[in-house]
Design a protein that fits this description.
The complex is a heterotrimer of chains A (340), B (289) and C (562).
Chain A: H1 3-31, H2 36-41, H3 47-56, H4 63-76, H5 89-124, H6 129-143, H7 146-160, H8 184-190, H9 194-231, H10 234-242, H11 246-283, H12 289-298, H13 302-330, H14 332-337
Chain B: H1 2-9, H2 11-20, H3 22-39, H4 41-44, H5 79-114, H6 119-133, H7 136-144, H8 151-177, H9 181-189, H10 193-230, H11 241-249, H12 257-287
Chain C: H1 3-27, E1 44-45, H2 62-71, E2 76-78, E3 84-86, E4 89-94, E5 100-105, H3 119-132, H4 137-140, E6 144-151, E7 154-159, H5 166-169, H6 178-182, H7 191-194, E8 212-218, E9 222-227, E10 242-246, H8 251-259, H9 272-279, E11 285-299, H10 309-318, H11 321-328, E12 333-334, H12 357-366, E13 378-383, H13 388-402, E14 407-412, H14 414-420, E15 430-435, H15 442-450, H16 467-478, H17 482-499, E16 502-514, E17 519-520, H18 522-528, E18 549-550, H19 552-560
Parallel strand pairs in C: 1-10, 13-14, 13-15
Antiparallel strand pairs in C: 2-3, 4-5, 5-7, 6-7, 8-9, 9-10, 11-15, 11-16, 12-16, 17-18
Helix pairs in contact in C: 10-12, 15-16, 16-17
Classes of the chains: A mainly alpha (340), B mainly alpha (289), C alpha+beta (562).
Chain lengths: 340, 289, 562
């Protein structure tokens, strides 16, 4: 089937999935024990005020109605009021989303470049000591959880060789750039404040790496094994016989093919990194959306929880579709097969 | 059943192949070490009381030394002993979750794959889609925070988030096999649905399922450690690796050993299982070609 | 392209990249603007109240109090000795029956935006506090009948029933500028005329007359406030230009920030090891002082097995109080009953519970759960934001194990504990909680801890709901004569100790580290002089930044290593 109709089909499926997701999230937020209104207002407020807030939060209506009201709010951009910050969840999200976004962007760049680069290197020098080192690193990288990387990085680069900052987004006392996107690195670049750019980038390096390590290792492995598997194939022998330089074989031909599984894996991981980011954000004291989501979950802040998880789920779906598109572009077989 | 038996016949062959791969052998011994330590922890641990309700402030925060190889934590408990006992929880988490989700996921996937193309298939697959969409960690976090945190709760939470992957795997295997000639032949002779699903289709799916299982025990343990890092999972005084790392994180860099040794232990277990899993994968996949 | 050419290109690009980075780093490495010699920037840390509410009708916890104390003024100001001094009110009189209080107000006070302070603002603030009903409203709600401005500078409070500590409770009425708040109301739940009563605007702004005014309020991270030069109380030359209150973070980050001299006074939540590490730094001093709070293990009296008084007493006799004082919170003192020893009205005759395993076992044998200890574990929650509490919880667990009682510990973020406290069923058997008072006498502690009105809040996880105690508390608070009131407090304390609804762990000694090399902190000075009264027991007043002096040149010298 052609690309547009394939795309339409995928989008349709995505919408169904998102609706299902909203139902699951809604159920979770409503199962939580405790009275959200009482939690929000605190203990000493009288019943009348509690009832007023319950009414305002639609908690007195039947569950189905509550669900539809919540969906309506979602679609119009009203995610309700956060119990902890007392302001609209949307405001909280807008404030904390850019920081997580810029950290994830850095992590994605690192894991892409690092993963592919390492995988390529390892495949080129297959079975040598370089290959061995990369493989060991890959195994370690996958086995080590992000928070362990975080702690090790903090110890090494924060204390023993103190060259990188280990918390926050900017050094104390510096004024963030004027708000364009909310991401300090981009905004400072757009304003031409190179020093500020470098400072905010420095703060992203350790958290970004901690986040990227696992995926980078994974990508390196997959990339390497795809290439190595193919290296003995007939068509490669043919190319060598024709005198095509080894590097070109690696990058132009094998590499492109190997990108497919690598990208699928990386995109799945990139999407889930929004969720995994919370661990890294906690360890590095980084004020981001993921940590906000975790706080919301642990503190039973219903609206914030529902809103943030919905957002993260939505992003995840989007990334999956995007990667499917890329893979379909790179490998026409996938979309041709979808006619089932 | 025949295909299954044929696979088992060459077990000796498979073990030989496995032992040739150095990395997998290392993994095997790592996992063996973990299992042995976990089972015999009360005997092997130098200070078994440390894994329980012990307070010894006079001994608190001592650096690694000959008496305490991994040092002591802020309550005065020996970290090496606690790490050994923590292996138990990790293993229970890994094996327990896999034991829960594999049968469930495979059954669902088998069912959906068999009825491929019909309404049942669509419904089941959409449901699994939803689960796959939610980042497993956040989902597990939300579910685990519902009740009083305990090992059981975090196992349920991870199982809740993970089972769809097995369903989807089985589904894709089943749906591709489903239309093979030999299945159609069985149906023609009048074989019952149950026989077809379990005796014909399932054995052919087993290889990728085993592979996935082997590769994933490590992931499940990782997720368990992450959940306990956040505070869900086993509660004190029971030792849990993730909890030990997060508790110790506050005392960096001065008392680094409180965090670092449990962290390395996590990496060790997961690495061991990953290497082992890789070996099993190679073994199984070269068999079923 | 042949290989050598490619290699050269790569090398050149790499060199270019490195030099750009290096250039960025050295040439434009941003440093915070050089601070002029007579002003300074501060960072204060506060409790991990996440988040902080600076609305005077909403805030009531530690970080909220610190903000309110500096942004707003009250009619009176609390002294370290437990009395009050005139502040926005110059003098006051009370009627004989204690039902009518007349205050004469100070003239010439300006709010941050220039509006003049008048009696109308006092009326507005009390009305608003009572209507919104959160924060410190609970103190005044049962008593205030009406507030009226009888002149531009006189205000009259009429009470429904007498309230002995009324004046000493008034610091918690923070005066907001009526005009400014009303100019920022939006639609809300308080009716057409009042809308949201300015609640939304006051989340991130202030309408106060205090020494500092909000410059920037970020809900998760920090509050930055700058000096209000028109403050009626005047200024000394070395007071800070700006003060920042930010959320607590990992102890290791605080240690680093302190070492880099970016943190001037720490919060009181750090673990002992961190204070010890900070004490080793040059120019750092750790001070410890009793702050009028106590640490409680609150036992749920309506949930098995802690619903049995003998069981509770058994726990109280099993707990090792001395280890807490020695190893967990050094400087604190053992509790003698529910009221901290440095509060007016503390009964000196009370003999607290001490660790005594025989007595514990004897009490346990008398309880109805003696033979079924395994079926009745004691559930306990401690607050994740205060890591040292884990030691207390583990100690409790180990001590209970000695008499055969099983304890299940759970670490909970404070928001979760607040949620759990709302119903009997969800409240655990034991909760580890610090509690402070909002006016400096025993009645404040007794009311907030054991009156039925506070059941369901994190300040009372005991669900005591004892009507005779309620009557006694109400009666005591209504007594105007201080001596008589104190006697009534004694009676209440004796009764409560007998009911043993709580394990009173210790009278808290707050521990903070500060930069003694360049900060002059009145509280620390009082501690050094071994004064008994070091600062008011009301939360927040130890951080009255207006009275703190800073010497930036000393800080610069310290940083450059001289």
């Amino acid at each position: 089937m052609s690309l547009p109709s394939w795309l339409a089909k995928r989008l349709g499926e995505a919408v169904i999935v998102l609706i299902g997701l909203s139902i699951v999230l809604f159920c979770i937020t409503r199962i939580l024990p405790g009275d959200p209104a009482r939690i929000a207002l605190g203990p000493r407020v009288d019943e009348a005020a509690i009832q007023a807030l319950r009414k305002q939060m639609n908690l007195d209506k039947p569950l189905i109605t509550q669900y539809f009201l919540w969906m309506k709010g979602l679609l119009t951009g009203d995610l309700g009021i956060s119990l902890l910050s007392r302001r609209p969840v949307v405001t909280d999200i807008k404030e904390y989303f850019p920081s997580t976004l810029e950290m994830i962007i850095l992590a994605v760049i690192v894991q892409f470049v690092g993963g592919l680069g390492l995988g390529l290197l390892s495949a080129k020098y297959v079975d040598t000591w370089l290959d061995g080192i990369v493989r060991i690193f890959a195994y370690l990288g996958i086995a080590t959880p992000a928070f362990v990387w975080g702690i090790l990085l903090i110890l090494i680069f924060g204390y023993w060789l103190p060259i990188l900052p280990i918390s926050g987004r900017l050094t104390e006392g510096l004024v963030p750039p004027a708000h364009i996107t909310g991401m300090y690195t981009w905004d400072s670049l757009l304003h031409g404040q190179l020093g500020l750019f470098w400072d905010s980038l420095k703060h992203l390096i350790l958290p970004g790496f901690a986040l990227a390590m696992g995926v980078m290792a994974q990508a390196a492995r997959i990339f390497r094994s795809s290439i190595v598997d193919d290296m003995e194939a007939d068509h490669v022998y043919a190319m060598r016989a024709y005198g095509v330089p080894e590097n070109r074989i690696l990058t132009k031909y094998l590499g492109r093919l190997a990108l497919i599984p690598a990208i699928s894996v990386m995109s799945l991981d990139a999407g889930s990194q929004f969720a995994n980011a919370f661990i890294v954000e906690s360890v590095f004291n980084f004020p981001g959306l993921s940590r906000l989501g975790m706080q919301a979950i642990l503190n039973k802040d219903l609206n914030a929880m529902g809103g943030i998880l919905m957002l993260i789920g939505g992003i995840f779906v989007l990334i999956i579709i995007l990667s499917d598109v890329i893979v379909a572009y790179l490998d026409p077989r996938t979309r041709l097969q979808q006619s089932g | 059943m025949k295909t299954f038996n044929r696979a088992m016949d060459s077990t000796g062959n498979a073990i030989y192949k496995f032992s040739r791969n150095k990395v997998s052998v290392v993994g095997f011994f790592m996992v063996l070490l973990v299992v042995v330590v976990a089972i015999f922890a009360p005997v092997l641990a130098p200070y078994p009381k440390s894994a329980g309700a012990l307070i010894d402030f006079d001994n608190a925060s001592k650096a690694p030394s000959l008496t305490h190889l991994f040092g002591t934590d802020i309550e005065g408990r020996d970290i090496l002993s606690r790490v050994m006992f923590a292996f138990r929880g990790a293993l229970v988490m890994g094996l327990g979750v896999i034991a829960m989700i594999v049968p469930l996921g495979v059954l669902v996937g088998l069912f959906a794959g068999y009825y491929y193309g019909t309404f049942i298939d669509t419904i089941i697959m959409r449901v699994t889609d939803i689960f796959v969409t939610l980042p497993a960690l956040l989902l597990a976090l939300a579910v685990a925070s519902l009740g009083r945190p305990s090992l059981f709760h975090s196992m349920m939470a991870v199982a809740f988030a993970w089972w769809p992957y097995y369903a989807r795997l089985t589904y894709s295997q089943t749906s591709s096999i489903r239309n093979e000639t030999f299945i159609k032949a069985s149906e023609t002779i009048g074989a019952g649905k149950r026989h077809i699903m379990f005796a014909e289709i399932l054995p052919n799916c087993l290889a990728p399922i085993f592979t996935k299982m082997a590769l994933e025990i490590g992931w499940v343990i990782l997720m368990g450690a992450t959940l306990s890092f956040v505070g869900l999972g086993e509660q004190p005084p029971t030792a849990a690796l993730g909890t030990m790392v997060s508790d110790g994180a506050q005392y960096l860099p001065a008392q680094w050993w409180i965090s670092v040794f449990p962290a390395l232990a996590i990496a060790f277990i997961v690495l061991g299982f990953n290497l082992l899993g890789d070996g099993i994968k190679n073994m199984v996949s070269t068999e079923v070609l | 392209m042949n290989r050598t050419f490619r290699a050269i290109v790569v090398l050149l690009v790499a060199m270019l990249f490195v030099s750009v980075l290096a250039g960025c780093k050295t040439a434009a490495a941003p440093t915070p603007a050089p601070t002029p010699a007579n002003t300074t920037n501060y960072v204060f840390h506060t409790t991990e109240d996440w988040p902080t509410y600076i609305d005077p009708a909403v805030g009531n916890d530690f970080s909220d109090s610190i903000a309110l104390v500096n942004l707003y003024d009250s009619l009176v100001f609390p002294t370290p000795e437990g009395t009050v001094k005139p502040w926005l009110a110059l003098k006051w009189t009370a009627s004989k029956d204690g039902l009518v209080y007349t205050f004469t107000l100070r003239q010439g006070v300006k709010f941050h935006n220039g509006d003049p302070f008048t009696a109308n603002d006092v009326v507005f603030s009390m009305d608003r506090l009572l209507t919104i009903g959160q924060g410190f409203a609970y103190i005044f709600k049962p008593y205030i009948k009406s507030t009226k401005a009888t002149g531009t500078y006189t205000v009259v409070f009429t009470l429904k029933k007498s309230f002995g500590p009324f004046v000493s409770a008034l610091p918690r009425l923070y005066i907001a500028d009526k005009k400014q708040v009303m100019a920022h109301i939006k639609t809300g739940t308080y009716g057409k005329a009042l809308g949201d009563y300015g609640a939304n605007w006051l989340l991130a702004h202030d309408a106060g007359s205090g020494p500092y005014t909000v410059k920037e309020m970020s809900m998760e991270d920090h509050l930055i406030a700058t000096k209000f030069s028109g403050f009626w109380g005047g200024w000394n030359a070395n007071a800070p230009q700006t003060f920042e209150e930010s959320a607590t973070s990992q102890p290791s980050s605080e240690l680093t920030a302190f070492a880099k001299r970016n943190l001037d006074i720490t919060d009181e939540l750090l673990p002992l090891e961190t204070y010890q590490a900070i004490a080793k730094l040059k120019g750092a001093t750790v001070v410890t002082y009793l702050n009028g709070h106590n640490l409680n293990i609150m036992l749920n009296t309506k949930k098995a097995p802690t619903d049995d008084v003998h069981f509770r007493k058994a726990l109280a006799y099993a707990f090792d109080y001395n280890t807490v004082i020695k190893s967990i919170y050094p400087g604190s003192s053992v509790c003698k009953g529910p009221v901290p020893a440095n509060l007016l009205g503390h009964d000196p005759k009370i003999v607290g519970y001490t660790k005594n395993l025989e007595k514990a076992k004897a009490e346990l044998a008398l309880s109805k759960y003696a033979k079924q200890l395994n079926q009745y574990p004691v559930t306990m929650s401690w607050c994740a934001e205060a890591p040292a509490e884990e030691k207390v919880a583990l100690l409790f667990q180990a001590d209970c194990a000695q008499i055969g009682v099983k304890v299940q510990i759970t670490k909970k973020p404070f928001g979760s504990m607040i949620a759990d406290a709302t119903t009997i069923k969800t409240t655990p058997n034991a909760s580890v909680v610090f509690v402070g008072v909002d006016y400096p006498e025993a009645g404040a502690m007794l009311a907030i801890r054991y009156a039925s009105t506070s059941a369901g809040s994190w300040e009372q996880c005991e669900w005591l709901q004892n009507s005779s105690i309620d009557k006694m508390i109400s009666d005591a608070l209504g007594t105007i004569d201080q001596a008589a009131r104190v006697k009534k407090y004694y009676a209440i304390q004796e009764k409560i100790v007998d009911l043993c609804p709580t394990i009173w762990v210790m009278d808290q000694a707050e521990q903070r580290a500060y930069q003694s090399a360049y900060i002059d902190w009145p509280v620390a000075n009082a501690v050094k002089l071994h004064k008994t009264a070091v600062c008011s027991v009301l939360m927040g007043y130890c951080m009255y930044v207006h009275d703190i002096k800073a010497y930036p040149t000393n800080r610069v010298n310290l940083l450059s290593g001289s």
